[in-house]
Design a protein that fits this description.
about 280 residues; alpha/beta; Spore Coat Polysaccharide Biosynthesis Protein SpsA, Chain A; seven-stranded mixed sheet; 10 helices
Amino acid sequence: MVEQLICNQQVVGSNPSAGFFLLMLQGNKIVVVMPAYNAARTLRQTYDEVIGHDIVDEIILVDDASHDETAAIARTLDRVRVEVHPENRGYGGNQKTCYRLALAAGADVIIMLHPDYQYTPTLIPAMASMVTSGLYPCVLASRILGGGALRGGMPWWKYVSNRWLTLTENILLGAKLSEYHTGYRAFARNLLEKLPLEKNSDDFVFDNQMLAQIIWLGHPIGEITCPAKYMPEASSINFQRSVRYGLGCLKVGIEFAIARWRGEGSIFPRLPSSL
């Protein structure tokens, strides 16, 4: 079951409405994880807006062997734990470290946000409250809901690819998401603990596998509209890697359909009802 929620409310840490979110999130540890690679130019700006929310208890930044000053800058920032991979492990490998460290830190809600300032940290309180409400153990910040992708400068070929891939995956997975490819997500602790993340790819298709696993386990996914900015500083994959990613997403969808017929798959565990 996938639900969609369009929310345009703007919330910042200094806003009086922050007290409302603090009340809703009371007793929950909120950890923001940032899978980083060469993010020195945008890290501080992203950090300033994230830490401006009174609800964020800790930020975990995992530097995937960057060639710039990402790790050095991160170490100067308050409430930021820095982990550096000595060798590049890939985007999926980076996220595996992010989630492992967040769970070890006792996080109740884990929010994954790219430090390239493509996505607004303003939505953190709203996303966290959707998780702590118990309605959605997973919340996606969608660039497609509300039309923010094209307005924010998403290249037309990426937009068309996003829409086509999403339609195909919705058919294969039996879902109704507006997109599967956002780099801004919130998770409940008990959901992450159930996912066999180590079986997933270390490449970009990790994101897609993760959502397919959540749908496989029958958990609802909420969505919230999110404006996006496409700047030269924002991280992006080139056309060749985008094609490889798209083919990988199709493979995940086909594997999901086959697993549904067989009762299990390589990254989809056999469900109790299938025994």
